[in-house]
Amino acid sequence: xxxxxxxxxxxxxxxxxxxxxxxxxxxxxxxxxxxxxxxxxxxxxxxxxxxxxxxxxxxxxxxxxxxxxxxxxxxxxxxxxxxxxxxxxxxxxxxxxxxxxxxxxxxxxxxxxxxxxxxxxxxxxxxxxxxxxxxxxxxxxxxxxxxxxxxxxxxxxxxxxxxxxxxxxxxxxxxxxxxxxxxxxxxxxxxxxxxxxxxxxxxxxxxxxxxxxxxxxxxxxxxxxxxxxxxxxxxxxxxxxxxx
Length: 244
Description:
mainly alpha, Four Helix Bundle (Hemerythrin (Met), subunit A), Helix Hairpins, 10 helices, elongated
């Protein structure tokens, strides 16, 4: 009986120690200092990844930069294990934690050591820490609140561009390569929408062959401008309503 009683006491003591250690670990991984440490590591990793794009730096310090990148990756993996162990189910209840886990998992696969693009995904984790800075936090809140409006704008604008692209293929595709296919026409219209030399390199050459093409391009620019203005006014109105 004494032996069994001592075993029970030992189990209780071990359980208490386990919960106490887990509580301390939870306090550590959710603390401000730990958050700032991880953010500093991400910033340092960003510098390393930037240096790895330089041919000169890669030539002289390729091995050192690679080891630093792997070291930072090891820190992120350990961080994920600590957070999951400390928070358990609560870890997956936080969208940012899930986002961090996915990013770290993707950037830690073997192919990531060869493809810097995959490793660069880790830098997106910096978005998690914007809540520590009031101005950036306000910007992030505004961005998130405008996402539904922006998605609606993209959908509306895509239909508009799609219709005009089909018209361009049928009217000018047989002569101009920029309108030969639907994909090419969409890309050409994208250049028109950005106003990047659209008159001199796109509209005027087409008008030399098709004199009435000015009607098409004028209608395109005016309607696109009205759509952009409508989106801007809607976005400003939404921001003002949120402030009030």
